[in-house]
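DM from R.C. (forwarded with permission)

"hey, sorry to bug you on a friday — could you get me a structure for this? deadline for the figure draft is monday and I only need the backbone to look sensible"
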Amino acid sequence: MPSPPHTAADTVPRTAGTHITILLVEDHDMVAEAIRLALDRTDDLEVVGRSLSVKDALADAARLRPAVMVLDRRLPDGDGITAIPALRAAAPGTRVLVLTGEATPAVAADVAEAGGSGLILKVGNLGELQDGVRLVAAGEVAYSKGLLSGALDRLTGRTVDLGATLTPRERETLGLLGDGLGTAEISRRLGVALNTARNHVQRVLEKLGARSQLEAVAVARRAGLLR
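My reply, with the result:
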């Protein structure tokens, strides 16, 4: 479904005060209500809309511009993972967190390759989902236990000399990403402001041609930049 053209301002996700705004894409009523209650009962998370299908999600994401989209993998009109590129195009700046009943490292790798920011299993506790939303809203990745390392092993990357384009500080940042550190910890390790650390991470992603921190680490490992 085509979305209206976006201005530069349109790429900034909407927030309500200090809330992280969330679009929930889930077609099962009972599941959706449980997730909504779990997210809305916190002070910093707010569900601003619910979509029942990929088609609805495309329109709702463009209209609401949420900070995070919690996306069910299996929807009546398609696979949520396959729809991630179109959903991100409809709402630039929105982070996509996939929610599914079961998954393998290969599925987790598919999420990363599609441009998603994480994959959380429905069998996990609701606190894991809450934390996952906060992580992806902050530009991090969030994967249920056991999926992250396997996804890294399955992601493919470019083999050209990517390291030649990285500055010493960016190489240091990449090494910390390879150690599994998030942006806040990288900020502390490097002794720089959080926004500066985010800029370092973003430049590393751009130079490695990666769409997420997870993919950047995988690319770097394939290219021999990380052991």
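R.C.: lifesaver. The first helix runs from residue 29 to 40.
me: no worries. The radius of gyration is 17 Å.
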